[in-house]
Amino acid sequence: MLVLGIETSCDETGVALYEGEAGLLAQTLYSQVAMHAEYGGVVPELASRDHIRKVLPLVRETLREGGRRVEDLDAVAYTAGPGLIGALMVGAGVGRSLAWSLGIPALGVHHMEAHLLAPLLEAEGPRPPFVALLVSGGHTQLVEVAGVGRYELLGESLDDAAGEAFDKTAKLLGLGYPGGPAVAREAVAGRRDRFRLPRPMTDRPGLDFSFSGLKTAVANTVRGLEPLAARDVADVAAAFQEAVVDTLVIKCRRALAATGSTALVLAGGVAANVELRTRLAAAVPEVFHAAPALCTDNGAMIAYAGYLRLAGGATEPLAIVTRARWPLTELPPA
Ligand code: KG4
Ligand code: ZN
């Protein structure tokens, strides 16, 4: 089965071709980062318009790269949510219309499920059961995974997501958007012990997270230092990253102990963070994650999640449905 995957939930247009036997055949990605950087964050209306400009050229390019024709497709998978509604509607409208014109099925994929399943694309990928830490710009969740669509939410952020905390810290440090990679780069040269920032909600039992207090602590530290020297920026970045990583490591260990699992799957944009990967690898028995390019938003994870769902017999009516909010636990088992 040959599946075309289309991702347009936020600021990257991603397209990929996944084939059941051969695996990932081709993928293309267009990042809108340069356009949004001017505004310090994603401007939803501009995002939608740019997806419209890019999605069809990328579909053509992906088919060419994969050596397939549009008539070879067996199904189309697109991101149906959660995400920016206008941006989602671009991929959903194009994906569903293309499938309809070809007389093949289309499927709306859950963006966080696609992140969660992306590490399974790797040759030595994990197999359920495992615990997944989903860390992206909009979500921070610990999920017990028994199989595709068999998810139990163990804990989640009560306020800001981990990626959001990285982005806000970057802004406070004058590092611009997107924040995660910029903070990680600065942190390499910084001293992680010059400032002591909180490890929110680690001093009490439970698996929920809260990152808004950490952001406030960073804001107060920055205020006390202004004007910031290059040294200060690096040291605050290192202290912040250390606080986030410590917090995530503590909660992951707790989640593994609570479920009796030994395998942890790290997924979502923040999973590209090298310090988080390194520290988790040392702290838990088995960690799986996708290559960095498959951790941040991409079309391959959508094609793959769509393939798994379609192979499991999923079907949908012709209506184009997109959801800005969509709890992972509402998904049916595959
Ligand atoms: O999964 P993703 O690409 O999009 C969403 O679904 O949100 O995640 C984007 C988030 C952003 O907050 C970005 O700053 C963060 O992932 N991120 C990182 C790194 N790369 C991306 N955070 C920390 N370190 C990184 N290397
Ligand atoms: Zn994402």
Give a summary of the structure in a few sentences:
This protein is α/β, with parallel strands linked by helices and 334 residues long. It has helices at residues 33-37, 44-66, 85-102, 111-117, 162-172, 179-188, 212-225, 230-259, 274-283, 292-295, 299-311; strands at residues 2-7, 12-19, 23-31, 75-81, 106-110, 130-135, 140-147, 150-156, 263-267, 286-289.
Give helix and strand order, one letter per element, not per position: EEEHHEHEHEEEHHHHEHEHH
- Largest sheet entry: 5 strands, mixed
Can you count the helices?
A: 11
Structural class: alpha/beta
Shape: globular
Query: Segments where pLDDT lies below 50 for 5+ residues?
Result: none
What is the helix content? 40-55%
In angstroms, what separates the terminal alpha carbons?
17 Å
Regarding quaternary structure, what we see is: single chain
Ligands, deduplicated: 5'-O-[(R)-(carboxyoxy)(hydroxy)phosphoryl]adenosine, zinc ion
Our estimate of the beta-strand percent is 15-25%
- Beta strand count: 10
- Overall mean pLDDT stands at 97
Estimated radius of gyration = 20 Å
Strand order of the largest sheet: 3-2-1-4-5
Based on the model shown, name its key terms:
11 helices, 334 residues, five-stranded mixed β-sheet, alpha/beta, binds zinc ion, binds 5'-O-[(R)-(carboxyoxy)(hydroxy)phosphoryl]adenosine
Tell me about this structure.
It is built from 11 helices and 10 strands. The protein is of the alpha/beta class and about 325 residues long. The strands form 2 sheets. The chain has a 5-stranded mixed beta sheet, with helices on both faces. Helix 7 (about 210-225) runs antiparallel to helix 8 (about 230-260). The chain starts with a strand and ends in a 23-residue tail after the last helix. The model has no long low-confidence stretch (mean pLDDT about 95). Bound molecules: 5'-O-[(R)-(carboxyoxy)(hydroxy)phosphoryl]adenosine and zinc ion. Zinc ion binds near residues 111, 115, 136, 268 and 297.
